[in-house]
Structure formats: structure tokens, C-alpha cells
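#lab-general

N.A. 3:47 PM
ok so I finally got the sequence cleaned up, no stray characters, all 365 residues accounted for. can someone with queue access submit it? mine expired

B.Y. 3:52 PM
send it over

N.A. 3:53 PM
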Amino acid sequence: MESIAHVGMDVDKEKIAVAVVKDYESEPRVQRVIGNRPDAIKTLVEELSAGYDQVTMCYEAGACGFELYRRITDFGALCIVIAPASLPKKANDRVKTDRRDAVKLAMGLRSGELSPVYVPTREDEALRDYLRAYEDIKAELKRAKQRLVHFLLRHEIRYEEGKNWSAKYWKWLRSLTFDSPMMGLAFEEYVGQITRLEETRKRIAQRLEAVAADERYETKVKTLRAFKGIGTLTALSFIVEIGDFRRFARAEQFMAFLGLVPSEHSSGGRRRLGSITKTGNGLLRTLLVEAAWHARYYKVHGKTLLKDRAVVSPEIATYADRAGKRLNRKYWRLLHAKRPPQVAATAVARELAGFIWGAMVGQTV
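B.Y. 4:20 PM
back already:
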């Protein structure tokens, strides 16, 4: 009979706790702690490969990333990166150690209860990190602007001639003077921080625009840009975060992955639906909801849409147009039904996810 080893690994920066369980065994055969070093990992893989016909290893996705996965697969073993939320937890379990966590992973791997995560290529992971750096800069820029506005409000300085951060607003900012030299210095620091972050954001955006023109991403980016509300950077984020859209068998699975489906607590004959689950990829969910707000206004002959749809196939252009009209109707129908705008935008985002999945897997009928 073929011997199969299921290996659970609890990984941190310095060490790896390892548990090995064989098929049909109730307890792990091996428990040990090794250093998180290439030589120690290679020795472990060679030892297990010599003792078993088949070796499957797993660890939880986390701060240590995917380099361990790549190292193990380079050494010839099968490795799976596990979604932390899929690991079963007992309500009465109050003891947590690295070895126990490794045993739970090994037993869960053997029973098939664990859900693997998508492992990107090194190139896609590098681009994903750069895109996330862009989102971090955007978030920091937003906070920097809020700090400046709060600083001005504390001193009863208000702008009442239009919207903040317009060209007119910046002209007004530069005209401000302060009686206290220290207050003026504080104001200059706040403005300087915003200016530096704006320059960084623009520089990263320009580089990402150039990456999107690469033949590896160009066709997919153009396909996603055919949908109203989706720009180049959002399209790139979907491409590198998802990888192969065909790993989702149905549009509903893709919606669930993004955490856009309602939570449910039903019992007996009573069905109770709650707010969206917010599981899965939070960044993509946020980008999708931002794109969904564009469904409020849909112009078939808008210059931007016409330009984006001129470079894709007629099939994709028609599909994206049908999506835009449907989502626009859905948004206003929900508003007329007295639903809050945020709820309407979330519902639109869920359907938009389905349209995106259809475009990327070729199901546009």
C-alpha cells in the first residue's frame, strides 16, 4: 500500500514546528521544530521523501509569504498554502502552541478540510506588492489631508468657496498667513507632507501605467477597462491578485471570494440574511465598491468609455455595455426602494464582480 505523509508546519521568522501524520493514523507520527533555513528545509524534505511514497506539506498564509512554498516545491515535494480562516477551531480549546498548531494543520490536511490560497508567480507577486504600496500611499495621503483640514479647523480657518483640494482650494491654501511663526511652520509641514505624497502617488501611477502596457497584461487590462468605473490600476490589481479566474467555477464563487455575498443565520424554517460576509480579498472588495459608485451615472456615448471599448472585441464591448445599463438600473431601483446608497453600491459591486468573472473566463453570453 502506498504510504502518504501529511505534513503540517507552523511557521515563524526563526523556526518551523513540524507534525507528520500518516493515512489512517489518529496521532502524528513525527513532531519536531526545525530552523527556518533553506538547509534545514531541504533536509526535512529529503528525509520525508525517503520514508514515504508521497509527501504533501502545508502551512498557513501569513507574514512569511510564499517563499517557503517555492523552496519546498523546488526541492521536489508538494506544498499547499492554507487560508487561516479555513482551519477548524474548537470553542473549548484554550491551549495554543506551535506544535499543536502544526498537528491541527496536518490532521486538517489529511481530512481535506483546509482551503488552499492562490500562490502568485514571483513576477505577479512583485507587481502586487507595488500595487499595494500605491494603495498604502493613497491611504496615507488621505490621512495627511485630513490632518491639515483638522489643523485649520482648530484655528477656525474654513474654506467656503467650493470643494476641498481643487486648484482653487490650493490657491487659497498658499495665500494663508499666520500670526505665530510656529503655527506657520506646522502648516508648512502639513502641506509639504501632502505634496510629497502626491508626487510619490503620481510617480507610482505612471510606472504602473507603463507596466499595464506590457503584452502580458495589456489584453486583460483593456478587457477590464471596458467596464465603467474600472481604470488601469484597478484592472491590474484584479489580474495579479486573482491570477487565473477559471479557478472559480461560477460567478457566485467569485462573489463569495470577494466577501460580497450576504451572511446567513438560518435555522428550521426561518431564513435570516445579514450584511455581507467581508471575507476573502479586502483590497479587491474595496476597489470593486469604489467602481460600483460609477453605476449611478451611465452614458453610453461617454468619451472615455468609447475610447476604451474601441480597443476590445465587439463581443466584450457589447457585454460591458449591457453590464453598465443593468447596474445603473439596479442602483436606482434600490434607491427608489428606500435602500441606503451604500447598500445599493454594495449590491451593484456584487453584480459587477459577476460580470468581471464572465469577461475574464469567456462567458459573455
